[in-house]
Amino acid sequence: MILVLLCLPVSGCANDSIKASTSENLVGPRALEVSEIVDKIIEVHPEGRNLAAAGEFTEFAAGLESSADDLDLADYIIQLHKLFSLVRDGHTAVLSLSMQAEPFTLRTPILVKNFSDGLYVIEAKDEAVPLLGGRVVSINDTPIERVLEAYVGGAQGDNPAFAMRWAPFLFAFPGWLHGLNFADGPYDSPISIEVILQTGESVRAQLRPREGANIDRQALRRKLSAVEEMAASENSANFVQVIRDRKAVYISLDAMDDLESMSFTEFTRQARSAFADFDVDRVVLDLRRNGGGNNMLPEPLRRTLIKSRFNRPGGLFVLTSPRTFSAAMNLATRLERETDALFVGEPTGGRPNHYGDAKYLVGSATGVPYLISTLRWNDSMPFDDRIWLLPDIPAPPTFTDYLAGRDAALEAALSHRPKQVDTNDDLLATPWERLSQQAGWRFFFEAGSGGTSGPRN
Q1: What is the pLDDT of residues 273-330, one digit of tens each?
Q2: pTM listed for this prediction
Q3: Among positive and negative, which fits the CA dihedral 79, 81, 87, 88?
């Protein structure tokens, strides 16, 4: 089983601002905590011995150990993020969002969402309401491009898509901004956010970090997408619907788990029943919201797809996004290896071959929770070193689509017609080398992107 828990509740963390008065609650100094964490990574991680011999990892660890007790908590935690980023494994991570200490208990009154054309404010309250619907252009007068470059450059994970999946927390958790040196002063100091509204108007607001600022925010008014409407009618994250006017079976697979609303066995049975409908000619499997779970549960569904009449060019489509990770990544990789599926949407947040089955641990000095992978998963060939699975049909979401309830990836999967191409046995033997996987990907803040995420030119 692969299961990543990014928001586990943790208590007993030390508040850096009152470190002196609570020192009796600390097991040991931060320098010792860093040493213990490094030893655990080397001991537990499958690549631990190689990391111990890697100059970059050991030198950074030594530097952090020597400076750890001189840093404030935000700086220290972000430096731990950077240490873990050198492992290049999304399952080996610091879970800073779970810390119960300032500044990580403080929130701002906005929620930001990542789109191919920028980061947009989709929820707000109080002083942040004027920002609702705006594209973020700066934080504390620093251009958002510079902020994201610094954040992604030191972020944990398998690839930049995984980092961008968590980018909205730069706004929700001011501790990250302090640790990245894009905010200073007391942790509850106002944070200046500038946006550009759809009208072209520039609006700025001073957001005051505080506990509970994320509760009861006002959501942006918009039209729901077809998938959101289906999910609302099904009242389940995992569901199957036949889209008769498009002759398609749509499968929403958000959780590799038995849900209260439906067991995975029943979910699989419903999918098989839909496959028997000869009025449909394609299957669309949506993994865009699936962060993992139990690897074994989708195996019967996968084997059914392999043996089905949909295992042909134009018969099976898999929707992916930066949230496609862990057990969902394994399923996607197995389908790539064993079917004629076309992948649609955005890059995955995980590698085709990756590490998982993480062990949960807690730092001895600050109580910071963290994960270390224990197992190597080779669901592609051992020499497939891709950092992500790229879409064969790119269809990243835009903010305009979000407002209008359009789903570019689903529409692309429903309307695509395969081209007549000669069989290339060499390509079939090495699917990770097909043209779509060599294209690369740029995000909207990167040089040469033209302000829009998508395949590299």
Answers
A1: 999 999 999 999 999 999 999 999 999 999 999 999 999 999 999 999 999 999 999 9
A2: 0.92
A3: negative
- HEC string of the chain equals CECCCCCCCCCCCCCHHHCHHHHHHCCCCHHHHHHHHHHHHHHHCCCHHHHHCCHHHHHHHHHHHHHHHHCCHHHHHHHHHHHHHCCCCCCCEECHHHCCCCCCCCECCEEEEEECCEEEEEEECHHHHHHCCCEEEEECCEEHHHHHHHHHHCCCCCCHHHHHHCCCHHHHCHHHHHHCCCCCCCCCCCEEEEEECCCCCEEEEEECCECCCCCCCEECCCCCCHHHHHHHHHCCCCEEEEEHHHCEEEEECCCECCCCCCCHHHHHHHHHHHHCCCCCCEEEEECCCCCCECCCCCHHHHHHHHHCCCCCCCCEEEEECCCCCCHHHHHHHHHHHHCCCEEEECCCCCCCEEEECCEEEECCCCCCEEEECCEEEECCCCCCCCCCCCCCEECCCCHHHHHHCCCHHHHHHHHCCCCCCCCCHHHHHCHHHCHHHHCCEECCCCCCCCCCCEECC
Pick the CATH number of 110-219 from 2.60.40.10, 2.30.42.10, 3.40.50.300, 2.60.40.3210: 2.30.42.10
Contact present, 389 and 347 (Cβ < 8 Å): yes
Q: What is the average per-residue pLDDT within 183-208?
A: 97
**Mean pLDDT for the stretch of residues 22-49:** 83
Domain boundaries, the chain: 110-219, 226-356+377-416
Tokens of residue 165, six digits? 């999946």
**The architecture CATH gives domain 226-356+377-416:** Alpha-Beta Complex (3.90)
Res 425: pLDDT: 60
Contact predicate 77/94, CB 8 Å: yes
Does 103 sit behind a cis peptide bond, omega within 30 degrees of 0 on the bond before it?
yes
Cα dihedral sign for 164, 169, 175, 177?
Answer: positive
Task: Say how far apart CA 38 and CA 94 lie, in whole Å.
Answer: 12
Structure confidence by residue, pLDDT tens digits, 339-360: 999 999 999 999 999 999 999 9
